[in-house]
Write a structure and sequence with these properties.
This protein is an alpha/beta fold and about 550 residues long. Helices cover about 50% and strands about 15% of the residues. Strand 8, helix 10 (about 220-230) and strand 9 form a beta-alpha-beta unit.
């Protein structure tokens, strides 16, 4: 099988493609090739001389052939000339390279910095005459094309070549999940180290004010986000909310609405939610309701938030009557799951997130379950201090990506939870009841873990699955350090809350259960005796 480049770098003249590309190659111990240098080797003369003798069309033809060859048979970092992506055949070759898993990086430099470097470099036929005027004209033509043909966009304003190279490496190594569908404004979930660096790109140039909504425990991560936002030229309003479920109330939301009003937030401004699942839920709800909906980006900092709350477009707050009873379906402009934030997670908060990861394995992607089995001990003994750079980091990144893909599959077909999306609620009917009866002292992922065991027991009672499937739930979840039983309330209280569940239809209960591992079905209105027997089994 032919090799293909680790990354292809493009950008305007003076963007630093060659310098940054060489730094990237050096850091990754990969070869580097520059298309212009390869063309000069091919034609046996300098590019300005070739331009003068044969003209631009002949040069572009040679350039396209050289690029096509390197995209097929070069395994390092490959830098293109400024005008190369404007050639239709090269655009097609780049699209095919992306389809094969390639990364095309648009190195987007500050225009003033790029013009100065381009002028200093000399030897650029496309800048003959008034160089700055020519550069600006070319930028206007090329920038939209560069955006279209690339799948990684790296701003380098104010960065050294080494800093820009590190940013390129971080962004190229990230895992990307595209979420789209008939009723959804498409967005991207970026997973990996440094994905928060995409914040300015995702927000765009339209917003002027940004409400950065976060909790106190993630202060160091919110400091980083604030610095990125200010570097991007936004006016940042820092809004700290209570941690976990106490932050998801109408009182907290109202306080934020008052601030947005007092500080003049308009429909073109935006919200960034940074923190765990409760923080991203609240931030999304505020964004969905302010002026009937403004742009928002989620930066989840816990495993649970990365795989569940921050993706899918569910936003909401709790009421005294139950969890998430007030909210909306409102998709984010992007989700940036920066795994560096997991290094600050306590062990028990990390493990909680594995409940939602396992759920996605049980309902659809069984490879998730195999990965959890294989790495159960390392996951159970997660230590944020040693996480980054360890083999476990790649395991966790894959689990996040797979779980997000499961969620994207259900959300893209059913944004507003009319059918298919309900299957994401496996384990949640009892799980939400546990959270309410425990006054939210139980964390969501732990409650869902018990809820999945309950759903498996109920499915077994109904004859849908064998006992060994129930035992597999118990053994896998236990091996990860998740709870599999609960004794904190009466059946009568639980049953009353189950009847308030969003899946309930009238006075009839509805559960999501398995009929085999990896396949879910609805179970409508089982008998109270069966529901009670399943409850008895999870009390043991």
């Amino acid at each position: 099988m032919a090799a293909h480049p680790y990354a292809v770098i493009l950008g305007m003249m003076g963007a630093g493609k060659t310098r940054v590309g060489k730094e990237v190659a050096h850091m990754l111990h990969l070869p580097f090739a520059d298309a212009d240098a390869e063309i000069e080797r091919e034609v046996g003369m300098k590019i300005p001389a070739y331009f003068e003798q044969y003209g631009e069309p002949a040069f572009r033809e040679v350039e396209a052939d050289v690029i096509a060859d390197f995209l097929e048979d070069f395994d390092g970092i490959f830098s293109l000339g400024g005008g190369a992506p404007m050639t239709p055949s090269t655009q097609r070759e780049l699209a095919a390279y992306i389809d094969r898993g390639g990364k095309v990086v648009y190195l987007d430099a500050d225009p003033q910095e790029a013009m100065e470097r381009a002028n200093r470099g000399g030897g650029r036929p496309m800048l003959n005459g008034d160089a700055n005027a020519r550069w600006k004209k070319l930028y206007k033509q090329r920038d939209p094309v560069f955006h279209e043909v690339s799948n990684v966009h790296v701003h380098t304003r104010g960065l050294t070549p080494q800093g820009a190279a590190k940013k390129v490496i971080d962004m190229v190594s990230q895992r990307i999940v595209h979420v789209d569908g008939a009723a959804i404004e498409p967005y991207v979930v970026a997973i990996g180290e440094g994905s928060m660096n995409r914040l300015v790109d995702v927000l765009g140039t339209k917003p002027r004010k940004i409400a950065l909504i976060h909790t106190q425990p993630v202060q160091r991560h919110s400091d980083r986000a604030r610095a990125l936002l200010r570097q991007g030229g936004y006016d940042v309003s820092d809004i700290v909310i209570p941690d976990a479920e106490p932050g998801k109330t109408i009182t907290v939301a109202n306080g934020i609405w008052e601030r947005l009003g007092n500080e003049g937030f308009t429909r073109s401004d935006a919200v960034v939610g940074l923190g765990g699942g409760a923080a991203t839920d609240l931030a999304g709800f505020v964004a969905a309701t302010w002026m009937r909906g403004i742009r928002y980006v989620n930066c989840p900092t816990s495993l649970l938030a990365m795989v569940d709350a921050s993706t899918g477009g569910k936003t909401g707050i709790n009421t005294p009557q139950g969890k998430n009873l007030v909210g909306s379906f409102y998709t984010p402009a992007g989700v940036l799951a920066d795994v560096t934030t997991l290094s600050s997670l306590p062990n028990d908060i990390f493990i909680e997130g594995l409940g939602e990861v396992a759920k996605s394995g049980f309902i659809r992607d069984t490879e998730i379950l195999h990965i959890l089995e294989e790495h159960a001990s390392e996951l159970k003994h997660f230590d944020g201090q040693t996480f980054l750079g360890s083999p476990l980091e790649e395991v966790v990144a894959e689990l996040i990506e797979r779980t997000v893909r499961v969620k994207a599959y259900h959300v893209s077909s059913d944004l507003k939870e009319k059918g298919l999306r309900e299957f994401l609620n496996y384990g949640h009917t009892l799980g939400h009841a546990i959270e309410k009866l425990e006054h939210f002292r139980w964390r969501h992922g732990n409650a869902v873990a018990v809820g999945m065991v309950y759903a498996a027991e109920l499915a077994n009672i109904m004859g849908l699955i064998d006992r060994d499937v129930v035992d597999y739930h118990r053994s896998l979840l236990s091996s990860l350090g998740l709870p599999i039983s609960w004794n904190g309330g009466s059946f009568e209280d639980v049953l009353a809350l189950m009847h308030r569940d969003k899946k309930a239809r009238g006075n009839e209960l509805r559960f999501v259960v398995l009929d085999s591992i990896g396949h879910v079905v609805h179970l409508d209105n089982p008998s109270t005796e069966d529901v009670k027997e399943a409850f008895r089994r999870i009390q043991q």
